[in-house]
UniProtKB/TrEMBL annotation:
Keywords, in A-Z order: Exonuclease, Hydrolase, Nuclease
GO MF, one annotated term: exonuclease activity
Protein name (record): 3'-5' exonuclease
Superkingdom of the organism of origin: Bacteria
Length: 128
């Protein structure tokens, strides 16, 4: 969302004197309650917790998000690769790769079908 659209949404909500929870203020308007702002009302959620609702006119804009540094971008890319490798399918792919690198002799396979969405259910292998 660009800054002009955000400013328009904020102005419209202030003109309508709307009230929102902290999470909604943060997510939709990039705002937070001003220091010392009192909640308009408290609500109880279905889990027994309580949350406050604030008037948007009593809130202040949050600072702009800084762009990610090159190290943060690299760390994000690294984490995405590591999460795929550590997932169940990633671990199974590694195990299959290790088995195939041993040049096995295939004895039997059980699959769910013959199309490109079929999955291998069971593979019988033996070493050559």
């Amino acid at each position: 969302m660009n800054n002009d659209e955000l400013a328009t949404r904020r102005a419209q909500a202030i003109a309508e004197d709307r009230c929102f929870s902290k999470g909604r203020l943060r997510d939709e308007f990039r705002m937070k309650p001003a220091p010392g702002a009192e909640p308009v009302k408290w609500y109880k959620n279905t889990y027994g917790g309580r949350f406050a609702v604030y008037r948007i006119a009593d809130c202040v804009p949050m600072r702009e998000k800084r762009p990610l540094t090159s190290k943060q971008q690299l760390a994000g890319q690294r984490l995405s690769v590591l999460s795929r490798l550590n997932s169940t399918s990633g671990r199974m792919a590694r195990q299959a790769y290790d088995w195939l690198s041993l040049a096995p002799l295939f004895l039997d396979t059980e699959t769910t079908g013959l199309d490109n969405t079929a999955e291998a259910l069971e593979i019988g292998l033996t070493d050559a």
